[in-house]
Structure prediction request, 935 residues.
Amino acid sequence: MMGGVVLQIDFFAWLQGIPSWLYGVIQWIFGIVSGIFYWIWGIFTWIWAAVFDVANFFFLIRAILFPGLVFILMTIIFAVWFTRKLWGRIQDRRGPFHLGKYGGLQLFADAIKLVAKETIIPDKARRWMYRFLPSMLLLVVLIPFAFIPWDPIWFIADLSVSLVLVFAFLTAVPVVALLSGWISGSKYTLIGGFRAANNQFASEIPLIISTIGPAMLAGSLSVMAITQAQSNIWFIFLLPINVATFLVAAIASVGTFPFDAPVADSEVIFGWRTEFSGIYFTLTYFAEFAEQALYSALIVALFLGGFQGPAFLPGSVIFIIKFLIVFFFFVVVTSSFHRLRQDQIVYFCWKYLLPLSILNVVLVMLGIANIPALQAILGIGG
Amino acid sequence: MSPDILDETTEIWFGPQHVSAHGWAAKLTLVGDFVVECDPNAGYFHRSAEKCLEFRNFRQGALIMERLCMLEAFLAEYPYVQAVEKIAGLEVPERAKVMRTIMMEASRIHSLQFWWGQFSAELGLFAMLLWPWVDREFFLDAFEELSGSRHAVSYSTPGGVKYDFNDKVLEKLDIAIARFEDRMPVMRDMLMGSPTFRARTEGIGQYTLKQGLKFGLSGPPIKACGLPMDLRKDAPDPNLAYDMIDWEVPVTESEEHPGESDAYDRMVQRFREMETSVEIIRKLLPLVPEGPIVDPKARGKSNRLPEGEAYGRVEGTRGISTLWLKTTEKAQTPYRAKIRGPCFNSYYSLKHLVPGAKFADFIVVFGSLDPYPGWWDR
Amino acid sequence: MSEDTPISGATFGRQIVNKFPDVECTPKEDGILECIVPADKIRDVVGMIDEEIADAFPESVFGVDLQEDKFEVIYIFWSRTNRTQYHLRVSLEGSNPEVDTISDIFPGMEWHERETWEMFGINFKDHPDLRLLLLPEELEGKYPLRKSFVTDRSRLKEADRTPPKPKPTEGGASE
Prediction:
């Protein structure tokens, strides 16, 4: 026979193969469909397990409800109301009083008004960044709240380096402020942005060095561990100077009175926030109060024993009471001094706060090494 | 974003939409954080008061004058009244003289309280903004009781005053002054004892006495240099009652830099001004004689004035404010009236005082001179 | 400065007249020394005030429109030591009169001269900064404080503004 391949089709065999081919196709489709189905089912079961698994369920409640988002937002709203009311009292006026009991609903009314306002974006602004940065700012300020131990059980996260993480996030705040001053396309916002950076430049080093004392006494960088280490004695009694330096540096870092050069209204209108309007202004304004609340909570956790206190009260209640007292001091300090100039802020922070905080670190080192009674109180091994 | 932001010098407009630039604007040239050039601009409030005065008769004119500076309405309207009285040769009853003087000093206190609150707010302490402003309300209550209006009082009129004192006015005035005296030491300590306040004001906007005189500064900015230049004492007006009592012109002489004044000295000086005013009121209140409050012939005499020129001057809160008046024969309206507001010169002097200061200190220099836009825009 | 012996207005007037014979000085009541100064001598007289009187205080410079192209510029100084006001009067003629500036001797007069220029059209020679001070740009060169300046509604057309509607004359308690 000649070479070559003669294609021969066995027609009947082909005909017989059709049903099994069809069966295969159907099976293939069924496989896909059921795969998708099982995948979705798997997601459902996973979520189900995640939510109704005891540990996971409580984590979710913590993250969303109690020490988490809702609680923090309510705290900040309360902080705004508290600040305004207290400022009003100090300034010989009534503060908000129209809406709700003692004006408690005033902030909601303000928020609705601000959100409903027209959003004006200047021609020279970078639109995308202009929209993005305010929410970024609030996000950066809200995340560190996860590491605050509001309660021995009801806390969100406890990392071994949470103290460092808190400051890592807070360092981003003036960067966002500088950026939003830059992209707003106005000279006043740019000046305000640089002033915000200047504030952080002045205050950050004393602020962070002030936290070294408690960390060394507790032998840990976890905020939770530092709080627990104060079961015998609160660190405010061991480190009174440190509390003062931390409080002042915290006020300077937030950039409120008397260190409010970044948003000094008589000099640079509203600093880096000048061009923000409506919802963007609300977010930045909110972020400032969130930062104040965060620093107050940090002071409670680091120096005032956190949730430790009389046994008949739940830990969270003790923490909140202490938080209110510290926040009260915050407000009183911010309403009793004239504004300092930017160079005076740097001078003040570096000339007074920095040596004091460094001195404290040295004293703590010597104390831990040489005083056995201190080691006994703190429960740390020599 | 405009590329000139990073150029070597930056021009920045301070006003007129700036929150602390209420009706004025200064063009600042910045190098880094320092102001190298300041060009104050006027005219945002210009209402052409001088032209308006040419169309009002001699009793209406005072109403325009007091609208130049509502804060010192009693003082602002006085130069016009004085000039009219000089040309018309009007006699002012004794009672009106004393009452005028008392109200002018009350006006001075309340104007200084306003300034002090504003200056504190410019320096970022809002508690000190509202404390004096609350006290100020009590003076306004007394003014309201007296004239029916809190600011536009229209009190002095050629030949006397328009409204008589009654028990309620005196009572309210007494309440206001008692409250002022009560709270003054506390606030004084809060300001002068405050290290942050001293840090912001000492050495800011400093000038020598000679410079101040050349710029045409008067009132507290000059008295803070140590020169007791005060028209109440130097050029006593027969139609006011300043020579009826003993009082001293307050001056401030700084120990660190005698013969010069900075923002802090001007602050101290204004506190002394308020104390002096309280002293004058306290001494004058028992001396109010009985009698008519306005010369009965004044209305007829001030309808048509003889030809003449007169120069009315008064030591206002912010400095010397004057009015030069020229009338023609049997005129119903002035031929020419020239108003000299004290703040015209103090605002101008920013051009010389600000360069070299930091940008943040610009508003301190401005606030310490206490300029009021109505005085320069007129 | 208070140690200086006061010079009375009459004495200082004689000193001025001795130095510049074409100046007329008459002391008046209220401690006013009135000097009628020719336009070209104003810098000399003001310079003399600056040198002789330590606390000379520049109060005011302003113009007066005497109509028919006659103007008067009045300079007012005050000396606390001497308790004297110095009123220097300069008569000018012409539709665009000129006089020397004194703003380099007394910087405080700079804005007063600027205002006089924009309101009366009196030009101050060598003034460093003759710009509009108070007036809006549309009134540049109109010199509103001159008597010839009309202030009725015909101005509106000039300034490109629509006149307001006339008030209803009948009925209602609008007046």
Summary: The interface with chain B takes residues 1-2, 30-32, 55-60, 62, 64-65, 74, 76, 78, 80, 83, 85, 87, 106-112, 119, 132-136, 144-145, 151 of chain C (CB under 8 Å). Residues 9-158 of chain C form a domain with the Beta Polymerase; domain 2 fold (CATH 3.30.460.80). The helical segments of chain C are 9-19, 42-52, 110-120, 154-158. The first strand of chain C starts at residue 24 and ends at 28.
